[in-house]
């Protein structure tokens, strides 16, 4: 087998489609299928489960894809070491991150990155759901909040300061709370990963101790951008990151309430697959992300 076969297999596995892979690779679909079949024959195992509607990795294919990426990374390090030494980033990088983090902290800096590195093929997935890094072909993930147990490699980026926010229209109708007891007359718009089980509550620090104040629910959502939109429309108070809402605070579209009762800062972490090497192009993009987001993050979890 050669590297071109591994690249073709990797693209089919990443996209879950022979047709899409062929389009991106500039090859005929039949040629892509033939290469993958020949690769399966060489290693003596079926790597992809094909149906009329989808293409999925078999258990053997999942294991092979991990090793395939390691080999391609090693080859890239050898082939691109001189270009990278000159500061050039080229090739494909795919990263998944929360939507508001991408919109407010990454997007403003993207034009300069892409202008400086025209050979970079950057793919950003922006949502608040959990993804399978290997199955979906991501080079790295950015996660906000506590991390579940996993074998992924974690690189801390910093901490996000949090705040209690509301729209001027909401405060004009319901009044501005000045104490935690005042929250009895207010409603909460909150982020809930599991919409069935999580209860509405404002979480804050009181004399340094974590405190939970139950509130009346206005709306539970599983998307941070939708939560922000609901808050802007006066549906309730929300707890959200200060940096991702800074523009709206500066413009007066949102107002901070109960500043003495902020939620504890939450960690921001880069997650990498548990393998020996990271492709140089990926490492350089991750270092760029760390650099451009640093001014917006706290170095420690100490509240402001």
From TrEMBL:
Domain HTH lysR-type: 1-58
Any GO BP annotation: DNA-templated transcription
Record GO terms (molecular function): DNA-binding transcription factor activity; sequence-specific DNA binding
A Pfam family of this chain: HTH_1
Keywords: DNA-binding, Transcription, Transcription regulation
Superkingdom classification of source: Bacteria
PANTHER family hit by this protein: HTH-TYPE TRANSCRIPTIONAL REGULATOR (PTHR30537), LYSR FAMILY TRANSCRIPTIONAL REGULATOR (PTHR30537:SF72)
Protein family (similarity comment): Belongs to the LysR transcriptional regulatory family.
Protein name, UniProt field: DNA-binding transcriptional regulator, LysR family
């Amino acid at each position: 087998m050669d590297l071109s076969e591994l690249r073709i297999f990797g693209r089919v596995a990443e996209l879950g489609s022979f047709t899409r892979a062929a389009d991106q690779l500039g090859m005929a679909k039949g040629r892509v299928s033939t290469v993958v079949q020949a690769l399966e024959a060489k290693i003596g195992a079926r790597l992809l489960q094909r149906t009329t509607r989808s293409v999925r990795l078999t258990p053997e294919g999942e294991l092979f894809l991990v090793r395939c990426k390691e080999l391609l990374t090693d080859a890239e390090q050898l082939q691109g070491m001189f270009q990278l030494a000159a500061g050039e980033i080229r090739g494909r990088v795919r990263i998944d991150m929360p939507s508001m983090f991408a919109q407010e902290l990454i997007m403003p800096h993207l034009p300069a990155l892409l202008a400086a590195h025209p050979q970079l093929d950057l793919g950003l997935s922006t949502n608040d759901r959990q993804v399978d890094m290997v199955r979906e072909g991501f080079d790295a993930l950015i996660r906000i909040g506590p991390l579940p147990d996993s074998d992924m490699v974690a690189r801390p980026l910093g901490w996000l300061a949090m705040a209690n926010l509301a729209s001027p229209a909401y405060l004009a109708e319901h009044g501005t709370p000045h104490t935690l007891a005042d929250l009895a007359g207010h409603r909460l718009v909150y982020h809930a990963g599991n919409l069935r089980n999580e209860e509405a509550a404002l979480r804050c620090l009181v004399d340094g101790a974590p405190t939970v104040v139950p509130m009346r629910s206005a709306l539970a959502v599983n998307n941070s951008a939708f939560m922000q939109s609901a808050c802007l429309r006066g549906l309730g108070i929300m707890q959200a990151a200060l940096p991702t809402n800074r523009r709206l605070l500066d413009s007066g579209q949102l107002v901070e309430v109960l500043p003495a009762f902020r939620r504890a800062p939450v960690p921001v972490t880069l997650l990498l697959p548990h393998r020996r090497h990271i492709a140089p192009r990926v490492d350089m993009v991750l270092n760029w992300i760390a650099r451009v987001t640093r001014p917006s993050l706290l170095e420690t979890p100490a509240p402001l």
